[in-house]
Amino acid sequence: MKKLNQKIAAAFLALAMSLSLAGCGDSTSSSLTQEEPSVYPFVNTLREPEDNTVQLVEAPALTEAVKEKAAQVNAEIVGWLQVPGTDIDQPVVQTYNNSKYMRLNYEGKYSFQGCYWVDYECTVGNRETQSRNTIIYGHNTAVAQDDPNGLDFAQLLRFTDEEFAASHPYIFFSTAEEDLVWEVFAVLYTDTNFRYVTMIDSDIDTLVSEGKARSEFNYDVEVDPINDKILTLSTCTAKYGYVGGEARARFVVMARLVEPDRELKPTVGLEKNPSIKAPQI
Question: What separation in angstroms does the CA of 211 have from each of 194, 202, 218, 223?
Answer without folding.
Answer: 9, 15, 10, 11
